[in-house]
Amino acid sequence: MHQTSVRPVHVPSEPDSSYFLRVDWSGRGLGCGFELLLTDGQNAWRGDVSEAAVCREAEELEMQPERYIQDLQQALTGTEKSTNYSFVLTPSPPNSSSAVTLAYEKVQRDISFRMGSVAAESRPRANGGSEGVTGPQSPEGKRFGMPQQQT
């Protein structure tokens, strides 16, 4: 079973930019690995996180895998509003031709800890710009979704 989530992402170092995060996964959940697509409506970056990487992050944080995967799902899909999650994007600001790293953190009582990160590659177009991004519009009028297939 394939699942997809799209959510707005606030990046504190980029207060004037709007980002959207699409997460795609199959199987039992994010613990089986997932693909991320980050877009600002003009540019798109895609990265993959393997099942082994999810297990490694849980182990490094000394968390039970089930609890880590639950927190990961809350952070990346926005399914839970009671816990605060934060995102860090490097380099800041990104450009259309650069790879970026999106780190996700959990914030509790003014203390944050890094849950993980994903390296995402720019999705270039044949004409030199970033790949077109299509899909529903954000409140700011930007479009988000999966990049168009090049033919």
From TrEMBL:
Keyword annotations from UniProtKB, A to Z: DNA damage, DNA repair, Nucleus
Gene Ontology cellular-component terms listed: DNA ligase IV complex; DNA-dependent protein kinase-DNA ligase 4 complex
SUPFAM superfamilies per the UniProt record, alphabetical: XRCC4, N-terminal domain
Keyword DNA repair in record: yes
CDD domains per UniProt: HD_XRCC4_N
Domain XRCC4 N-terminal per the UniProt entry, residue ranges: 18-119
Any Gene Ontology biological process: immunoglobulin V(D)J recombination
Major subcellular location class: nucleus
Region feature Disordered, mapped onto this chain: 115-151
Cellular localization per UniProt: Nucleus
InterPro entries in alphabetical order: DNA_repair_prot_XRCC4, XRCC4-like_N_sf, XRCC4_N, XRCC4_N_sf
GO molecular function: DNA binding
Keyword DNA repair on entry: yes
Entries under PANTHER family matching the protein: DNA REPAIR PROTEIN XRCC4 (PTHR28559:SF1)
Protein name, as recorded: XRCC4 N-terminal domain-containing protein
Biological source species: Takifugu bimaculatus
